[in-house]
Amino acid sequence: SDLQDVGGVRSGASLAVTRQMLDVSQGAPASLAARFAQSEAASLTVNGIEWNMAKLALALGAGVVTTAGGTDTFRFGGDLAVSEVAVKFVHSLPSGLTLTVRLWRAAGNADVNVTFGDDVHEIPYQFNALQATKEWGGATLGDKEKLVEIELAGV
Q1: Is residue 1's pLDDT more than 80?
Q2: Number of Cβ atoms within 10 Å of the Cβ of 29
């Protein structure tokens, strides 16, 4: 797939991995007998600080970008489809370790709110993991590893 860089980001990126649980109680008085995951989700949010119309389209999952005469134009609205991206985020820790987050398949959150002010513009990008069957190299993912990979290197 085509490698895309979101450009410069401010600190404060966040990874959310969540599971919604179904609790099963039994007996009298009822007590918790089992828990099952009903849904799982993973999302990565970063605050971009570089204006790039192509990256904006990726974060929204739709839109048309044109470039002519040194001007980039983004137009949006009316497309029900949501484009997919692969997301890799690398964070260098003060200890010298490297933390890498991979969302094998993801879609933009489709919400971008930019405040126009005197400070650097921050463009919040959020990508939600979609269930994948293969990692980027083509290897098949196991039944319990289809949303996100978190890797800590240098330990």
Answers
A1: no
A2: 5
